[in-house]
């Protein structure tokens, strides 16, 4: 399938990809435009997740690319960033589903699992045979998860007993397994566990009333004497440093999704401005509308340059927490500006779902906060450049 770079890739970053990577992006974009874009507004309004997208995502390789056990062809972190952009350009909730299934759940197994655990679970997650979730955030612990986890794990023979609560866990109303991060009562270290959601004592309740990422099925999880065997403990996840290794990669991917959300809002506003006639001519010919569009394109171009370089650093094994943090903080802040300009360019029509802009405008708020708030990511970068920690 032929691939056409997006007009919003103003400086030609797609040229950095291989022909095979561009071909795969073209296939993904064609499916998103044909099968997701026309229906997603209704699912957003009903706060339902379109489960029919799971199999095509798996068939297209979106859930497989990152893992040596399942990758359909050799590909780069840069390519996978563009995959996140393409997904979020159409819908940030579908992008978030992939980020949880592929980045957080499968990523936890890739980072913390033994060889045997990787071989057993990664292919099942990559094929969509099972669905996963990632349980870190708690009702009273978000930004301070490194030290503030209250969920506990107690070793009893060949089993672990988990107790606690988790909140804002994406995919958790329908996941088959959830990776639960808990503090070991024995040594005080954070450890990861593969918890089948059918396990007695495990319950997940959907969080209602969201104004952002409405199709994403976030849940409150309660763990009451949940027993899991030692074989389901992530064998190579022995402290929060291992949890952080998962988040480091996915935080950069959220930055890519933020760029995609900006692109989607910008493109929708541009299309609207070309069609909407006021004072006898398309509003695209009005100076102030052009200013909104040019400012949006500038934000997209600057953010894209940052996330492209972050992915190149990751491919080179040089990506640090501070690099992911700066990309996430900057790209989401610029996204917030961009979706606001897009909504403004559409006037009153920018607050209804018909033109897509309203959905991007609302969804940006969740991306701005999850996977590390702007404030926390700022402090991570601040520590790196000054040598001083200012978290408390």
Automatic annotation (TrEMBL):
InterPro entries found in the cross-reference section: ACX4-like, Acyl-CoA_DH_CS, Acyl-CoA_Oxase/DH_mid-dom, Acyl-CoA_Oxase/DH_mid-dom_sf, AcylCo_DH-like_C, AcylCo_DH/oxidase_C, AcylCoA_DH/ox_N, AcylCoA_DH/ox_N_sf
PROSITE patterns tied to this protein: ACYL_COA_DH_2
Origin superkingdom: Bacteria
Cofactors (names): FAD
Domain Acyl-CoA dehydrogenase/oxidase N-terminal: 18-129
Domain Acyl-CoA oxidase/dehydrogenase middle: 133-226
Gene Ontology biological process terms from the UniProt entry: fatty acid beta-oxidation
Domain Acyl-CoA dehydrogenase/oxidase C-terminal residues, every copy: 245-385
Pfam families on file: Acyl-CoA_dh_1 (PF00441), Acyl-CoA_dh_M (PF02770), Acyl-CoA_dh_N (PF02771)
Keyword set, alphabetical order: FAD, Flavoprotein, Oxidoreductase
Keyword Flavoprotein on entry: yes
Molecular function per GO: acyl-CoA dehydrogenase activity; flavin adenine dinucleotide binding
Coiled-coil residues: none
Family per record: Belongs to the acyl-CoA dehydrogenase family.
Descriptive protein name: Acyl-CoA dehydrogenase
